[in-house]
UniProtKB/TrEMBL annotation:
Residues 1-145 form the Ferritin-like diiron domain. Its EC number is 1.16.3.1. It comes from the Bacteria. One of its GO terms (molecular function) is ferroxidase activity. Gene3D superfamilies: 1.20.1260.10. This is Bacterioferritin. Heme b binds at residue 52. It comes from Streptomyces morookaense. Belongs to the bacterioferritin family. Keywords: Heme, Iron, Iron storage, Metal-binding.
Length: 162
């Protein structure tokens, strides 16, 4: 099925955003793990995998529309040095995605591509959940301070040998 060029461009642009987010979140998870923030790292890694699932759905849709998914480009990967900076950087990715997804839904519906619009709406719901999580974490950091916030998420190794 031949897809509309503007719809395909939105799909590819969101694919670029998802591929960028995979890298950013995965690196943040590795940095968090390195710092011993294992519980935070586990959540961030899961977010990276969620973005991978989004990329897969977008790739499938682009191919179905007889176009080529663009895996050649990435947006700027924003890497934080502190947990606050990491959450702020990840939040910015989500803000941009939400705006793009909403614009895409309008265009897709106007062009009669309801399936692509539904895909974007599904991804939008996930991104809204993620931004809600990030906002909550940033509010907690503001209330508790970064050190106390982080202390909640450190898992100590048990005294037994592995």
């Amino acid at each position: 099925m031949q897809g509309d060029p503007e719809v395909i461009e939105f799909l590819n642009e969101q694919l670029t955003a998802e591929l960028t987010a995979i890298n950013q979140y995965f690196l943040h998870a590795k940095l968090q793990e390195h710092h011993g923030w294992t519980k935070i790292a586990s959540h961030t890694r899961a977010e990276s995998f969620d973005e991978m699932r989004h990329a897969e759905v977008l790739t499938d849709r682009i191919i179905f529309l007889e176009a080529l998914p663009n895996y050649q480009r990435l947006f700027h990967v924003r890497i934080g040095q502190t947990i606050t900076e990491m959450f702020q950087a990840d939040r910015q990715v989500e803000v941009e995605a939400i705006d793009r997804l909403r614009r895409g839904v309008e265009v897709m519906r106007a062009k009669g591509d309801i399936t692509s619009a539904n895909i974007f709406e599904s991804i939008l719901a996930d991104e809204e959940d993620h931004i809600d999580y990030l906002d909550t974490q940033l509010e907690l950091i503001e209330k508790l301070g970064e050190a106390l916030y982080i202390a909640q998420f450190i898992e100590q190794e048990s005294g037994s040998s592995k």
